[in-house]
Amino acid sequence: MNEPVTVTYSIEEVLKRIEDKLDRIDEKFETKLDRIDEKFETKLDRIDERLTNLEVGQATLTEKVSSMDKRLEKVENEQSTMVKAISDLQGFRSLIVPIVVAVATALLTLLFRLVPNISLN
């Protein structure tokens, strides 16, 4: 019943098996570590590419905004010129109307002065 346990393996064999197992575990660990490094590099490359695209997009947007700003300034200048031209036309109109009225009045006055001198015979 209480028989002693006997080991049939030598310590050298047991240590060799342990060493082999440790080597396999180390190999698996290195493989997984290499895969993680590879995935990390891939992700980092994608992030770098996206950042570059963002920088290019930002530069394009900055250029477009600058172009729009220049166009807006041009429109504002044209608007200012048009406002001045309209103002000048209104001033010209306010000058023309009295002249036309004066000429019409003068013509009517001449016409009325001539009417009594016309005989209907």
Architecture overview:
This protein is rod-shaped. With 121 residues, it is mostly helical. Helices cover 86% and strands 0% of the residues. The protein is built from 1 helix and no strands. It has one domain.
Shape: rod-shaped
Overall pLDDT score? 87
Binned strand content:
under 5%
Q: Sketch the major β-sheet.
A: none
Rg result: 51 Å
The structure class reads mainly alpha
Unreliable runs: none
Keywords: Coiled coil, Membrane, Transmembrane, Transmembrane helix
Transmembrane segments: 95-115
Organism: Aphanothece sacrum FPU1
Coiled coil: 15-78
Features:
86% helix; mainly alpha; 121 residues; single chain
Please give a quick description of this structure.
Keywords: Coiled coil, Membrane, Transmembrane, Transmembrane helix. The protein has one helix and no strands. The protein is mainly α.
